[in-house]
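Board notes, transcribed. Complex of a protein with FE2/S2 (inorganic) cluster.
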Amino acid sequence: MSEQPIVRRRVVKKGISDARTNDSRTQSQYDPYKDAAWGFINHWYPALFTNELEEDQVEGIQICGVPIVLRRAEGKVYALKDQCLHRGVRLSEKPMCFNKDSITCWYHGFTFDLKDGDLTTIVGNPDDKLIGTTGITTYPVHEVNGMIFVFVREDDFSLEDVPPLSDDLPFRFPENSEKFPHPLWPKSPSVLDDNAMILGMHRTGYGDWRIACENGFDNAHILVHKDNTIVHAMEWVLPLGIVPVSDDAITVVEDEKGPKGLMQWLFTDRWKPTLENKELGVKVDGMNSRHYRTSVVLPGVLMVENWPENHVVQYEWYVPITDDTHEYWEVLVKIVKTDEEKRLYQQRYDLVYKPLCLHGFNDCDLYAREAMQNFYSDGTGWDDEQLVSTDVSPITWRKLASRWNRGIAKPGRGVAGSLKDTSLIFKNTADGHRPGYKVRKIEE
Ligand code: BPY
Ligand code: FES
Ligand code: FE2
C-alpha cells in the first residue's frame, strides 16, 4: 500500500445535513415501518368492486404477498388462499366449481369448502387419507355499498380476533364532528353510510406502497398539481405548499377502539399556505379557494374531505401487492337518495371527476411516486432522505404506523413477485403483460 496521502481534487461539502428533521433519533421511532415493504398484515383491504365479481365469477388477486381467490356463490363472496395446498398452483387461473359450496383445483382436483377452506374431496381420489385433515386459509369478507373488503390475515391469526371493518376505515362523521370540527364544509360521508354511492377505480402502481401512501397527505406535494387542467379551469387557489406553524398541526388518534391514524388541521391557523415564492417570482393566481382536509389511518387509507367538490369525499388505498407493486384505489363517495340524484352523480363522475380528477389530477401523483421508487427500492432511501418541516406529516404517520400495525407482512414466498428475475416475468412482459393485481386466466 502506498503511504502517500490521497489527493482529493473536489472536496465534498454537501452531505447529509444535521438540520434535517429526520435525525437518527427520530428514525429509530419508525424502524418497524421501514421493515413493512410487503405491507401491514392482519388488516382490512379493498379487494374488488362489487361489479367486478358476478355470481359464480372467480377472480385471483394478491395483497401483501398473499394470493387470494374470490368467488361469489348464492350472492355471498368467499375469499380463500389462492394457492393449492397440493402443489401450489393458483385456483383462479382456471376456475373449476362443481357446486355452490366448494372450489376445485383444476390441476389434480383438490376440492376446498368455501366457508372454511377444508379439503373435502379430491375429484379423482375421493378416499385419500389426506382428505378431512387439512385445508387452506380463508379470509373474512365484508361487502358494502359496492366494495368488497377482505381481511388479509396470517394463517395463525385467529378469526375471533378479527376487528370490524370500521377500525380500518377513516374517521367518520358526525361521530367525530366535535373532535374534528369542519365549519368550512358539510360533513364527509363514509364508505359505510346508508345511501353512500361509491364510484371509483383501481389500477396497479409500480412502486412501494409506502411511497404512494405518504404522497397523499404530504402538504408539499401539491406543487405537482400546480398546472393541472381542473385547477386552471376552475381557477382554484391551490397553494404552492402548506407549512405547519404550530405544534398541534396534526392530531394523532390512537384510542383503544376505532381507527388509528392522524388528522391534519388544514385551513386553520395551525397551517400556513404558501401562495408566493418571492425569490423565484412564482405565485398562485387562482380566484376560488377550495377548502379540504387530509387524514390517514392504518393500514394506509387516505381521506380528502370536501374534494373534489362540496358534499363529495375522496378515499384512497395503496394496497401492497409485492414490495414493489401496489394497487392504487381512488373512490369518491356521496350520499344520494333519489334516482335523479344518483343519475346526476354518475354523470358528473363520468364526465368530470373520472377524467379530470381521478385521472388528470391524480395521474400526477402516480408519476411522482414512480419517480421516487429508485431512491427507495434498495432500502437506502429511508436513511438518506433529508426531510423538512412539511414532512412532519409522513414522519408522524410512520411513527404511529410502527406502533399500531397488527403485523408486518413477511416477504412473499412462492408467489408472484417474490423473485424479480424469473423467466415467467420476462415471458409475460415480452408478451405485453405487465405484472399486475388480478390473475390472468389460462387461455385454452
Ligand atoms: C386530493 C388531493 C390529493 C390526492 C387526492 C385527492 C389533494 C391534496 C391536497 C390538495 C388538493 C388535493 O392524492 O393529493
Ligand atoms: Fe392443485 Fe394438484 S396442484 S390439485
Ligand atoms: Fe396529490
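Residues 221, 225, 365 surround fe (ii) ion (ligand 3) (CB under 6 Å). The first strand starts at residue 43 and ends at 49.
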